[in-house]
Amino acid sequence: MSLNLAFEKQVAIAAVRRACVLTASVFNNLVKNETLTKEDASPVTVGDFSAQAVINTILNRAFPDDPIVGEEDAADLRAESGAALRKRIVELANATLTAKLEVEEKEEWGLGPNYSQTTEQLLDIIDRGNYGGGRTGRMWTLDPIDGTKGFLRGEQYAVCLSLIVDAQVELGVIGCPNLPSDPSNPSGPRGNIFVAVRGQGAYQLPLHDPLSSPGTRLAIPAFTPENLNLLESVEKAHAKLSFNDRVAELLGVTRPPTRMDSQAKYAALSRGDGGVYLRMPTGVGYREKIWDHAPGSLIVEEAGGVVTDSRGERLDFGLGRTLGENFGVVAAGKQTHAKVLEAVKKALAEEKGQ
Ligand SMILES: Nc1ncnc2c1ncn2[C@@H]1O[C@H](COP(=O)(O)O)[C@@H](OP(=O)(O)O)[C@H]1O
Ligand SMILES: [Mg+2]
Ligand SMILES: [Mg+2]
Ligand SMILES: [Mg+2]
Q: For Mg(2+), which residues are the binding ones (predicted)?
């Protein structure tokens, strides 16, 4: 049964939209113009903290009882050495929170000209993201900038928010400020929000139009080996890309992989812009974080896809802040997924035999 999450969805979209405006301005002011000196913090740090402050403020007002599993915490900001960074983050978060209300927003969410926060309030609100996760109850996951490396390169990154209830992702919202609206027109308009509520489908909305809801419904198309391609990380340290090459070979894929940072990969898959998202561990014992997969996996499922690990088991969002032991992620449309899983198992067996 689908939960009625209309209010949660409205709040989550508004929060992600505000954070995307903030991160885009951080990029334009701090990254492109290189206004930060070497002694300053990295612009991505400025963006991460202030975007988490903005989203947590809104969630905290709208859903005061809900815990949040957020990537960042304010410990470094509280330190004496964090003074300059702290000042910048407070300015940016307040500028974003006090901007005029959009039609779909409410003052009760701590938004608008009357809601400037103190430094202490903002640090505390960033630390509202310190929840440890778990098997029962409601919790939000937040990755304020996913794909930090892509953000710095001016490529793909995503603001990622989800609501998990009893270890099941029920709502996912991903803001992709740099993703083209139409994949067949890569130099056309960009900036999109992807949203899914379990049982209610996945949709793409233009980022800059607050009245665009519900947007365009997404459905993963069927693929043949000729038009199939893999979506994978840009960063070699994040996934075993040589393994992907072998899987592609076993599947008879001839198109080159599409490399993209962040959960924009799940968004691209959900609209058929790439047929498989494969992320196998590099073998260093890294545990995947729930905020890196929760919203993306629901959006793919609601676009008709399947998301499992390399054993074919569903990702378990009830283990805490991580997904536990890393068996990788295999996401694809229904028909494609079964074939990919078979190829993944074969490639794993080959590795073992070596
Ligand atoms: N060794 C590793 N293996 C897999 N993922 C890793 C990793 N080290 C960092 N990551 C995660 O990879 C995410 C980016 O994924 P992608 O490669 O798909 O763009 C990072 O998110 P952040 O950028 O939010 O820190 C980080 O959480
Ligand atoms: Mg991330
Ligand atoms: Mg991040
Ligand atoms: Mg990070």
A: 71, 143, 145-146, 292
